[in-house]
């Protein structure tokens, strides 16, 4: 079965489950709410390899569920995640194993294909309405690239629901993740036999951990003996690992798990090409990486500012120990520099207005907004910037942010901001002055972050801890 055949079948099985045609729940494989390349790819490759093969004693269908509550699969998904569409295209069309699976990497062609092959949270919610399903639905899930459902059940540990899909309660029956343990999952003994429960902070890509687990179970081929269909899966897995580790060059992010994943996947692809007597020069890892990277770097050009902030977004809520007050923090990641984001808004003041408006939306209601940028400067160096803003009156939020700054300035090597991408920004006015201020309730700071290893995966727990320990 090709990768696209599997995805189409999984979407059809999802509809059958909702119609009552299946005797038991399939297992939905759900990535985190940023729905970035790593999350989407991890969900797809795990679903493909575990489908009707896990759990061991009662194998069931696995369905990747893209964690996008406001985006239907289709042209809009292509617009918002072109790097995923590019990775899927490069993985399945060079060569296409079936003539009908050829598609163009363009919004109409790829968008239509995504709409007939994938399921998002928005699709799931729409399907429930279409089929007039109003009773609470129970389903099972494996979590990848996160380890906690955001709306936990009051009754059952390891169960919960997703924003945008309150009518479905998911029971987590497995997890593979590289973030800090949120203590949501049930114990290994409570899960079906031999289901994965891997929460291992460190690796740059969750897809590396997924690949290792699948390889250890021989669900992703046995050594170098993999099929042409599995080569498609291996290429898709590589796209996430390479992007999240900057082609294994990201300082402080790359671990042996990532290196071994790339080595194994590359070896399997090369082995299949050799077995099929295909010249090795038909596959170029660097060109593959650059194709996906270019799509990601150019993806923000298609979006408005609100979509830029929301594109790679996660939030957490913490309670200050002393006051008992809650603080909700939203983290926005961007592959473009702050200068570019401000220019997108028009002026620094309009950028700040957009941040406040973004934070105040009903589905977010944030106390703190953090914008983290990571990009390559004109001189080829990898750069990070950090913008932190308290957006509404909340003493615990302000004190928590100040504690975070005091505790982490040295660790993150935060220094006064100046343009890093070599471009003249004089037409934007004084960005540094506008984006630094202590006026309450709109305290804000902008820095260059010289600790290049400090991604959101490292920075978010630091701010959350600073707030919770007040």
Automatic annotation (TrEMBL):
Gene3D superfamilies cross-referenced by the UniProt entry: DHHA2 domain (3.10.310.20), inorganic pyrophosphatase (n-terminal core) (3.90.1640.10)
Domain DHHA2: 289-467
One annotated Gene Ontology cellular component of this protein: cytoplasm
Top-level division of the source organism's lineage: Eukaryota
Coiled-coil regions, chain positions: none
MF-aspect GO terms: exopolyphosphatase activity
Protein name as it appears in the record: DHHA2 domain-containing protein
Organism ancestry: Eukaryota, Fungi, Dikarya, Ascomycota, Pezizomycotina
């Amino acid at each position: 079965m090709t990768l696209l055949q599997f995805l189409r079948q999984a979407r059809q099985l999802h509809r059958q489950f909702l119609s009552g045609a299946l005797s038991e729940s399939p297992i939905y494989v759900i990535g985190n709410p940023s729905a970035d390349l790593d999350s989407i790819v991890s969900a797809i490759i795990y679903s493909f390899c575990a489908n009707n093969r896990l759990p061991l004693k009662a194998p069931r269908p696995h369905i990747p569920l893209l964690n996008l509550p406001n985006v239907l699969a289709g042209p809009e998904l292509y617009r918002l995640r072109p790097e995923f569409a590019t990775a899927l295209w490069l993985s399945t069309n060079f060569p296409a194993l079936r003539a009908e699976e050829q598609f163009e990497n363009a919004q109409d062609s790829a968008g239509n294909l995504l709409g007939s092959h994938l399921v998002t949270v928005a699709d799931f919610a729409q399907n429930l309405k279409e089929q007039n399903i109003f009773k609470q639905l129970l389903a099972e899930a494996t979590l990848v690239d996160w380890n906690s459902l955001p709306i936990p059940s009051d009754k059952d540990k390891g169960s919960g629901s997703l924003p945008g899909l309150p009518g479905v309660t998911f029971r987590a029956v497995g997890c593979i993740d590289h973030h800090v343990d949120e203590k949501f999952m049930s114990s290994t003994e409570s899960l079906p036999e031999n289901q994965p429960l891997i929460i291992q902070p460190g690796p740059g890509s969750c897809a590396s951990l997924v690949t290792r687990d699948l390889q250890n179970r021989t669900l992703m081929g046995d050594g170098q003996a993999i099929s042409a269909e599995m080569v498609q899966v291996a290429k898709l897995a590589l796209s996430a690992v390479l992007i999240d580790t900057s082609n294994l060059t990201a300082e402080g992010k790359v671990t042996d798990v990532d290196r071994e994943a790339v080595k194994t996947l590359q070896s399997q692809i090369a082995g299949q090409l050799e077995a099929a007597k295909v010249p090795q020069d038909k596959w170029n890892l660097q060109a593959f990486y650059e194709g996906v990277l270019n799509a990601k770097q150019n993806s923000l050009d298609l979006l408005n500012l609100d979509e830029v902030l929301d594109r790679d977004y996660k939030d957490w809520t913490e309670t200050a120990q002393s006051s008992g007050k809650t603080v909700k923090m939203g983290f926005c990641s961007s592959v473009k520099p702050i200068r570019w984001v401000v220019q997108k808004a028009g002026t620094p003041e309009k950028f700040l207005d957009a941040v406040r408006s973004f934070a105040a939306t009903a589905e977010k209601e944030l106390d703190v907004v953090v914008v983290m940028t990571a990009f390559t400067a004109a001189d080829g160096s990898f750069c990070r910037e950090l913008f932190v803003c308290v957006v509404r009156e909340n003493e615990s939020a302000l004190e928590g942010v100040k504690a975070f700054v005091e505790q982490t300035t040295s660790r993150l090597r935060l220094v006064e901001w100046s343009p890093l991408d070599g471009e003249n920004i004089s037409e934007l006015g004084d960005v540094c002055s506008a984006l630094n201020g202590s006026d309450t309730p709109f305290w804000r700071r902008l820095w260059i972050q010289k600790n290049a290893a400090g991604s959101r995966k490292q920075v978010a727990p630091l701010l959350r801890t600073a707030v919770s320990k007040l």
